[in-house]
Structures are given as structure tokens and as C-alpha cells.
Amino acid sequence: MWTLPNLLSLMRLFLVPVLLGLAWVGKGAAFFWVLVGSLGTDALDGYLARRMNQLTELGARLDSWADLTTWLVLPLCGWWLRPAALMAELPWLAAGLGGYVASVLVGWWKFRRLIAYHTWGAKALSWLAGAAVLVFFAGGPGWVLRALTPFVLLSALEEVAITLVLPRWQANVPTLWHAWLLRRNGVELTAGSSAAPAPHADPP
Q1: What letter does residue 166 receive in the DSSP assignment?
Q2: Strand ranges (DSSP E) for the chain?
Q3: Count of CB atoms situated within 10 Å of the CB of 113
């Protein structure tokens, strides 16, 4: 459990109440830099897990819980720190957040546990979303949240489709195509491995 990638994910979990507290008391500058640190650990833990060959099911689940809790509290933090700017983008924000939560709920309904696919689309989205929220909390325009919404919905739709296709819970499924190959070929993966198809998975 006590690998460096897992510790970084745990740290991101512990930063969630810190973010809430700073936003509640109106410490916008401190909140911004703690958010930078939180998003930095999000980018670093997966990279280190792959680099150090420490991909595990526990690590995937910790990372997913840290992502979920962080992204769910950010709208509330935005309400406390920049209420007018947030209200102007509320319909778009609600649509994106609704899609994200829906993908999580569908996964929980089918597998009774938090999904941890870490798809390529979700990884690209994490960079876009990280940049957008940093711009927003730095005092930038609110429309960056609006521009992010279509990408959030596309990523959520792919994760819902992966959940419906997979016969059982599986961490680290890069794309819907990989999920389909897993279902078609009955490929079993070790915990925390990427869902890459075998070179000769098709029957002769």
C-alpha cells in the first residue's frame, strides 16, 4: 500500500477538506496554490506508478476516489470564492457535473464499486479540466468552464459505454474498443494492468 504513487493519491484525498476550508474562509490565493498542488499530484501519481511498475488495483481505486472527491467539491469552492462568475456558467457546469456523476453511478449500479478506467479520453480531459479550473480560480473568464462541458460529456459517455460492455469490474481500460475486446475474447487481466488485447486474441 505504501508506495509513492499511492501516497500521492492519499495526499490528494487529504487536501480535499483543506480546499473546502480555504474556500469557506475566502482565502483565494492560498486555495489556488493548494489546488495547483492537488492537480500536480493527480498528474504525477499515474506517471510514477507506470514508471516504477507499481500499477495496482488499490492504486487505481485510490486515484479514482481522490479524483471524485476533488472534482465534486470544486463547484462548491467556486460558489464561495467566485459566486457571480459561477452562476453565469451554472447550466453548463450542471450538465458537465451531471454527466460525470452519471458515469460513476452507472458503474456503481453494475459493479457495486467505483469505476477506475483511467481511459485515454479521461486522461486528456484531466489536463484540459485542470487548466480550465486554474484559469477560473485565478480570476480568469468563466467561459472556460462552458468550453470544457462537451469534453466532460464525451468522456462520461465513453465510461458509461465501457461499464455496459464489460462483463466484470476492471481497472485501467484505455478505450471502449479495449472493453469490447475484453468482452469478446474473455481476456482476464491482472489487477492494475492496462486492458491491452493479446496479439493473437482472435480465434483461428
Answers
A1: -
A2: none
A3: 11
**Cα–Cα distance between 198 and 61 in angstroms, integer?**
25
- Which tens digits make up the pLDDT trace of 59-70? 788 888 999 999
Residue with more model confidence, 166 or 47: 166
Architecture category of domain 4-185 in CATH: Up-down Bundle (1.20)
pTM: 0.82
CA 120 – CA 125 distance, rounded (Å): 9
The answer to whether the beta carbons of residues 99 and 150 sit under 8 Å apart is no
Nearest CA among 139, 124, 19 for reference residue 71: 19
Burial of 28 from C-beta contacts in 10 A (0-12 / 13-18 / 19+): middle
Burial class of 27 by CB neighbour count within 10 A (0 to 12, 13 to 18, 19+): middle
Give the Å distances, CA to CA, from 165 to 28, 90, 160, 199: 43, 32, 9, 21
Contacts 24+ apart (CB under 8 A), 175-182: 175/119, 175/120, 175/121
List the chain domain ranges.
4-185
* Number of neighbours of residue 72 by Cβ within 10 angstroms: 14
- Rounded CA separation 36/42 (Å): 10
